[in-house]
């Protein structure tokens, strides 16, 4: 069976006249395998707890994975001649041989899941091995953990008040709302003053018009009286 598979294999030879010609069986193997690797990395590093929600709650991400995997599997198994030429792929003549790339990608995904779940996230790796490395190699401890330990050991830093964090945020929120209320009241006062002055001006102009026409009677406002005397003096 192996002889049947390798019988058609032709190794890649660099063309000195066309150095950008990479069409070969090796190019197909590298391209398809690396594409599966990118999909596997997206799945492995999108795990849920304890840092985020499960990736199954991100529907856009799942749709993207399905589309990318479908297109990659199609390019791997049975692309059209035009598509293979566009991607510069020299597909193996035996179609069953192409499923080997798909099987290798699935095995790689399974091994990565097992490694991340049962080895790298285990208590032995995250606690035991990390503590031993910190004792053997002082520089292996992250800098933020050193700063956190120093702050925990110093009870006077950072200086905090007696109120808790929720009370602090509530007090800040109340101050912000009070400031917003004062700004709104100022805006209403300004708009009321402007509208009052407009009404007063319009009313005064109306009364003056009546004075000029000689039809005003019984006005008790001193302002209007002044306007009346001024108009009479003007007539004289």
Automatic annotation (TrEMBL):
<dbReference type="GO" id="GO:0019829">
    <property type="term" value="F:ATPase-coupled monoatomic cation transmembrane transporter activity"/>
</dbReference>
<dbReference type="InterPro" id="IPR023298">
    <property type="entry name" value="ATPase_P-typ_TM_dom_sf"/>
</dbReference>
<dbReference type="GO" id="GO:0005524">
    <property type="term" value="F:ATP binding"/>
</dbReference>
<dbReference type="GO" id="GO:0016020">
    <property type="term" value="C:membrane"/>
</dbReference>
<feature type="compositionally biased region" description="Basic and acidic residues">
    <location>
        <begin position="225"/>
        <end position="236"/>
    </location>
</feature>
<keyword id="KW-0479">Metal-binding</keyword>
<keyword id="KW-0547">Nucleotide-binding</keyword>
<feature type="transmembrane region" description="Helical">
    <location>
        <begin position="28"/>
        <end position="46"/>
    </location>
</feature>
<keyword id="KW-1133">Transmembrane helix</keyword>
<protein>
    <submittedName>
        <fullName>Uncharacterized protein</fullName>
    </submittedName>
</protein>
<feature type="transmembrane region" description="Helical">
    <location>
        <begin position="58"/>
        <end position="77"/>
    </location>
</feature>
<keyword id="KW-0460">Magnesium</keyword>
<feature type="transmembrane region" description="Helical">
    <location>
        <begin position="97"/>
        <end position="115"/>
    </location>
</feature>
<keyword id="KW-1278">Translocase</keyword>
<keyword id="KW-0597">Phosphoprotein</keyword>
<dbReference type="GO" id="GO:0006874">
    <property type="term" value="P:intracellular calcium ion homeostasis"/>
</dbReference>
<dbReference type="GO" id="GO:0046872">
    <property type="term" value="F:metal ion binding"/>
</dbReference>
<dbReference type="InterPro" id="IPR006544">
    <property type="entry name" value="P-type_TPase_V"/>
</dbReference>
<dbReference type="GO" id="GO:0140358">
    <property type="term" value="F:P-type transmembrane transporter activity"/>
</dbReference>
<feature type="region of interest" description="Disordered">
    <location>
        <begin position="202"/>
        <end position="236"/>
    </location>
</feature>
<keyword id="KW-0812">Transmembrane</keyword>
<keyword id="KW-0472">Membrane</keyword>
<keyword id="KW-0067">ATP-binding</keyword>
<dbReference type="GO" id="GO:0015203">
    <property type="term" value="F:polyamine transmembrane transporter activity"/>
</dbReference>
């Amino acid at each position: 069976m192996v002889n049947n598979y390798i019988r058609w294999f032709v190794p890649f030879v660099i063309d000195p006249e066309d150095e950008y010609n990479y069409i070969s069986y090796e190019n197909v193997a590298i391209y398809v395998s690396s594409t599966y690797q990118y999909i596997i990395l997206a799945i492995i590093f999108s795990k849920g707890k304890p840092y985020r929600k499960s990736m199954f709650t991100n529907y856009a991400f799942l749709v993207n994975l399905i589309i990318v995997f479908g297109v990659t599997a199609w390019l791997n198994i049975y692309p059209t001649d035009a598509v293979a030429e566009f991607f510069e792929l020299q597909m193996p003549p035996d179609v069953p041989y192409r499923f080997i790339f798909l099987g290798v990608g699935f095995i790689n995904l399974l091994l990565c899941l097992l490694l991340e779940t049962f080895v790298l996230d285990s208590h032995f790796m995250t606690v035991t091995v990390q503590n031993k490395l910190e004792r053997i190699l002082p520089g292996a401890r992250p800098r933020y953990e050193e700063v956190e330990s120093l702050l925990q050991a110093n009870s006077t830093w950072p200086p905090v008040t007696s109120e808790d964090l929720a009370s602090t945020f509530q007090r800040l929120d109340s101050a912000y709302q009070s400031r917003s209320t004062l700004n709104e009241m100022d805006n209403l006062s300004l708009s009321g003053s402007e509208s009052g002055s407009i009404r007063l001006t319009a009313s005064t102009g109306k009364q003056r018009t009546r004075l000029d026409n000689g039809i005003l009677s019984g006005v008790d406002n001193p302002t209007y009286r002044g306007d009346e005397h001024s108009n009479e003096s003007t007539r004289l």
